[in-house]
Specification:
The protein has 26 helices and 11 strands. Helix 9 crosses helix 23.
C-alpha cells in the first residue's frame, strides 16, 4: 500500500471527523446520556463469583447434589449465639426450633437443618455457646442474592433469647459485591480530582487537561452500558467494574496526551487548525489505533478461559479500550477543531510561577507543544538515552538481572481460592466464618462431597466408605445418604479446606474405584478443576497474545527483531509485579500496613488477569516509544540518533501517563477486598516499573546492542510491510541517509538531538 493511498485514506478520515465538529460533539453528548441511563444499576446485576469451570466434574456434582440433596450443599448459615444459657438449654432449643421452622417456610430456601434437629456435633460449637442453622438458597447467583436481601433482615440480630448472625457462601459473595461497589465509588472520587490535578501539571492548560478526563468519562459510561447489555446474556463479575474505571481513565489519558501533545506541536509550528488536526491523525492517530489493538488483544486472550471471572475482564477491557480509542480519534479531534489555539487557555502554572518568565503555550511539560522546548520537555530523557547507550552492556545486564531478582519470590507461589478472608475483618459474613473456623469441630462446609450415581447395594456403599476412610488425608467419612439411584458421602479432610493435602485427596477420591459412578465436589475440588482449566488453556491464551502482538508491532515497524524485543521486554517488566504479589499478599509482608489477612496462597485466576492487563498496558507504552523511534529512523536512517530522539520526545509523555495510571490503580488498590487491592497495587507497580525502568533503561540499551540489525527483515516481509504496514512518520527516505551527529548523538544545548545532515526538527526550530 503506497503512502499516497494511506494519506488519502487518513485525509478522508480527517474530513469525516472534522466536517461538523459541533454536531459530532452533540451526538456524543446524547449517546453518553443514553449510556448513563442504559448502564444504571449494572453493579446490581453482576456476580461476585465465577472462579469455577462450568464444564468441570465438580460443577456437575454441585448441581446434581443441589437437585437431589439440597441439604448437602448449604450456602446459608445462621450462627446462633445462646449466651450463658448454652445451646442445650430447653428454652434456647425451643426458640431455635421456631427460628428453624420460620427459615424453612421462606420461599426459595430448601434443605433447612439445625443442630437442634439433627444433633450433629459439627453444628455445635465446642464451648456449647453457639450452634448453626444451615440451609440452601436456591437459584443462580443473582437470584440467590436477591433472596438473601429479602430474608436476612428478618433473621439477623436479636431473636428472643438468641442473637443471630448471617453467614455462609451466599452471604460472603453478597457482602463482597456490596463492598466492591462502595470501594469503587470511593476510588473514583479519589482518582478523578487527582488525575485532573496531574493533567494540569502535565499540560499547564486547564482546558487541555479536561480533554483526557472527558474522554475517560465517556469510555467508562459507555462500557457500563455495554456490560449492562452483556449481563442479559451471560454472567459478569462485579470485579470487572474496577478494570473499567482504571482502564477508562488510564487509556483515555494515554491517548489524549499523545494526540493533544502532537496537535499543540503542529499549532506551535504555524499550522492552521484543520491542518494540525489532519497531521495529528496521520501520525499520533495511527499510533493510538495500533496501541488500542495491542491492549485489546491482550485482554481478549482471557476469553479462552471458561471461568466467567476472567471472561468478564475481557468483556470490560475490550469495550473500554475500543471506546477510549474511538473517543480519542473521533470526539477529541472535533473538540480540537472547535478549540483551536484556545486549547492552551487557562494556563494555571502562572499561579505558581509569578515573577518567572511566562512559558510559551505547551512549554515545559510532557505534553508541551513547542518542539523547540526539548530542553524543558525532553532534553533530560535524551541525555538519559545517550548515557544508557554509551554503557549499553552494563545497563542491559544490570537492569535485566534486577528485574529477574525482583521476580524470584513468584517461584514459591501457591494457588488457592477466594474465601471470606477477602473481606474486612468487621464484615458480618467473615465474622461468622471466623467463628466457625475457630470454634466448631470438623470445619463445617470445608469438607468434600462424593456423589454416587447409578445405584448400588448397601454392602457396596459400605465397602466404598471403608476404603475412603482408610486414605491417609481423610479424618472422617459420613454417609451415605441415599435417594433412589443417587447417594452422597461427606469426606472431612485432616487439613484445611484447600491445602495441598486436601487437593491431593480430591485426586485420590477421583481415582478410587467404586461399583457406581462417582464425582467429587467441594471447595478443594473446585480449586483443582479451576487450576487444571487454566493450565490447559494458558498456552493458547499466551500464543494469541504473542502472535498477534508480533504481527501488530511488525506492521508498525517493518522489523523482525523489534516485535520479539517488545514481547520479551514487556514480559520482563512484569517480574516485579509477580514477585511483589507473592511476597506481600501470599507471604503476608506489609499485611499490617495494608490492612488485609494473608491466606498463604494466591487466588488462581489473579495472576492470569494481572498478566493480561499489565502486558497490554506495557505494549501501550511500547508502541508510543517505538513509533517515534521509527518515525525518526525513516527520516534520518540513523539508528542511535533515532533511539535518543524517540525517548527524548516520549519519555516525559510516557512517564506522565504511567504516573496518572498508577494513581488510578492505587485508588482501586485502596479497596477493602484483598483481591481488588492486589489487582490495583500490583498493576500500579508494573506500570511504574515498565515506564521508568524498562522504557528508560532497558529498551535503549538493548536497541544499542542490536544496532542497525534492529530494523532488518527478509525481503518478502519487507515487501509485505511496504504494502500493508503503517508508521507514525509521513515520509520514508531511504534507510542509510548519511547523518553526522555533532556529539555522538548526544543532546545539544537546547536539548535537541544535533545533526549536520538533515537537521532534526527539534533542533531546527529551537
Amino acid at each position: 500500500m503506497s503512502e499516497v493511498n494511506r494519506g488519502s485514506r487518513i485525509g478522508g478520515w480527517t474530513r469525516f471527523v472534522t466536517a461538523r465538529p459541533r454536531l459530532s460533539l452533540l451526538v456524543a453528548l446524547v449517546i453518553t446520556a443514553l449510556a448513563v441511563f442504559a448502564g444504571s444499576g449494572v453493579g446490581d446485576r453482576m456476580g461476585s463469583g465465577g472462579w469455577e469451570d462450568p464444564a468441570a466434574s465438580s460443577t456437575y456434582a454441585t448441581k446434581a447434589l443441589e437437585r437431589e440433596f439440597p441439604a448437602s450443599q448449604p450456602n446459608l448459615l445462621l450462627l446462633v449465639d445462646a449466651g450463658d444459657r448454652g445451646v442445650d438449654d430447653p428454652a434456647v432449643a425451643a426458640e431455635a426450633e421456631r427460628l428453624t421452622e420460620r427459615l424453612a417456610a421462606e420461599e426459595g430456601v430448601v434443605g433447612v437443618g439445625s443442630y437442634w434437629q439433627t444433633r450433629v456435633p459439627a453444628l455445635r460449637a465446642e464451648d456449647g455457646g453457639e450452634a448453626l442453622i444451615a440451609a440452601r438458597i436456591v437459584g443462580e447467583e443473582k437470584e440467590a442474592g436477591r433472596t438473601l436481601e429479602r430474608i436476612a433482615p428478618e433473621f439477623r440480630g436479636s431473636q428472643g433469647l438468641l442473637e443471630v448472625s448471617v453467614g455462609g457462601p451466599v452471604a460472603v459473595r453478597h457482602e463482597m459485591q456490596a463492598i466492591i461497589q462502595e470501594d469503587l465509588l470511593r476510588a473514583e472520587l479519589i482518582a478523578l480530582p487527582v488525575t485532573l490535578v496531574l493533567l494540569v501539571m502535565v499540560f499547564g492548560s486547564a482546558i487541555a487537561a479536561l480533554l483526557p478526563l472527558g474522554i475517560g468519562i465517556v469510555a467508562i459510561l459507555g462500557t457500563n452500558a455495554v456490560l449492562r447489555g452483556i449481563t442479559e446474556i451471560t454472567d459478569v463479575s462485579v470485579f470487572a467494574q474496577n478494570l473499567t474505571t482504571a482502564l477508562g481513565l488510564g487509556l483515555a489519558v494515554d491517548y489524549a496526551l499523545f494526540i493533544v501533545r502532537r496537535f499543540r506541536e503542529e499549532l506551535a509550528e504555524g499550522s492552521e487548525v484543520r491542518e494540525a488536526v489532519g497531521t495529528t491523525l496521520r501520525t499520533a492517530g495511527r499510533t493510538v489505533l495500533f496501541s488500542a489493538l495491542t491492549v485489546a488483544v491482550s485482554l481478549a486472550a482471557m476469553m479462552v478461559f471458561p471461568q466467567y471471572f476472567l471472561r468478564s475482564f475481557a468483556y470490560a477491557g475490550i469495550a473500554v479500550v475500543l471506546l477510549a480509542a474511538a473517543a480519542a480519534l473521533i470526539l477529541l479531534p472535533a473538540a480540537l477543531m472547535l478549540l483551536g489555539h484556545r486549547v492552551n487557555s487557562l494556563d494555571l502554572r502562572r499561579l505558581f510561577s509569578r515573577g518567572r518568565k511566562k512559558p510559551a503555550p505547551g512549554d515545559g511539560t510532557a505534553g508541551g507543544s513547542r518542539p523547540g522546548a526539548a530542553a524543558e520537555a525532553g532534553g533530560g530523557w535524551g541525555r538519559t538515552a545517550a548515557l544508557v547507550m554509551r554503557r549499553a552492556p552494563l545497563f542491559a545486564v544490570a537492569t535485566a538481572t534486577g528485574l529477574v531478582l525482583l521476580g524470584l519470590p513468584f517461584l514459591g507461589v501457591k494457588f488457592g481460592t477466594a474465601d471470606d478472608r477477602q473481606l474486612p475483618s468487621s464484615a458480618e459474613a467473615r465474622v461468622v466464618q471466623e467463628d466457625i473456623r475457630s470454634g466448631f469441630p470438623g470445619s463445617p462446609g470445608g469438607g468434600l462431597e462424593v456423589l454416587g450415581e447409578g445405584g448400588a447395594t448397601a454392602a457396596e456403599y459400605a465397602d466404598y466408605r471403608d476404603r475412603v476412610a482408610g486414605l491417609p488425608d481423610v479424618l472422617r467419612v459420613d454417609g451415605p445418604v441415599v435417594s433412589g439411584d443417587h447417594a452422597y458421602f461427606t469426606v472431612l479432610p485432616r487439613g484445611e479446606s484447600v491445602d495441598q493435602g486436601t487437593q491431593r485427596l480430591v485426586r485420590e477420591l477421583r481415582a478410587e474405584p467404586a461399583a457406581f459412578d462417582t464425582s467429587v465436589t467441594g471447595t478443594a475440588a473446585v480449586l483443582v478443576d479451576s487450576k487444571d482449566a487454566i493450565a490447559d488453556r494458558l498456552p493458547l491464551a499466551a500464543g494469541i497474545i504473542v502472535v498477534v502482538t508480533l504481527l501488530l508491532v511488525f506492521l508498525l515497524t517493518g522489523s523482525v527483531l523489534i516485535p520479539i524485543q517488545a514481547v520479551v521486554l514487556n514480559a520482563l517488566s512484569l517480574t516485579a509485579m509477580f514477585g511483589a504479589v507473592v511476597w506481600v499478599f501470599q507471604d503476608g509482608h506489609l499485611s499490617g500496613l495494608l490492612g488485609f489477612t494473608p491466606t498463604g496462597d494466591i487466588e488462581t485466576t489473579l495472576p492470569v488477569l494481572m498478566f493480561c492487563v499489565a502486558f497490554g498496558l506495557s505494549m501501550d507504552y511500547g508502541v508510543f516509544l517505538i513509533s517515534r523511534i521509527k518515525e525518526e529512523y525513516d527520516r534520518s536512517g540513523d539508528h542511535e540518533r533515532s533511539v535518543i530522539f524517540g525517548l527524548q520526545r516520549t519519555g516525559g509523555l510516557i512517564t506522565a501517563a504511567a504516573v496518572i495510571l498508577a494513581v488510578v490503580m492505587v485508588a482501586i488498590g485502596t479497596s477493602r477486598v484483598t483481591n481488588t487491592m492486589m489487582l490495583g497495587l500490583g498493576i500500579a507497580l508494573a506500570v511504574v516499573m515498565d515506564a521508568m525502568v524498562v522504557r528508560s533503561l532497558l529498551v535503549p540499551a538493548v536497541m544499542k546492542l542490536t544496532g542497525r540489525a534492529t530494523w532488518w527483515a527478509p525481503g518478502p516481509l519487507r515487501r509485505f510491510h511496504d504494502r500493508f504496514g503503517v508508521s507514525e512518520g509521513e515520509s520514508r527516505p531511504a534507510a542509510g541517509t548519511p547523518v553526522t551527529d555533532g556529539a555522538d548523538g548526544a543532546d545539544g544545548p537546547d536539548g535537541a538531538v544535533s545533526g549536520a545532515g538533515e537537521r532534526d526538527k527539534v533542533g531546527a526550530r529551537a
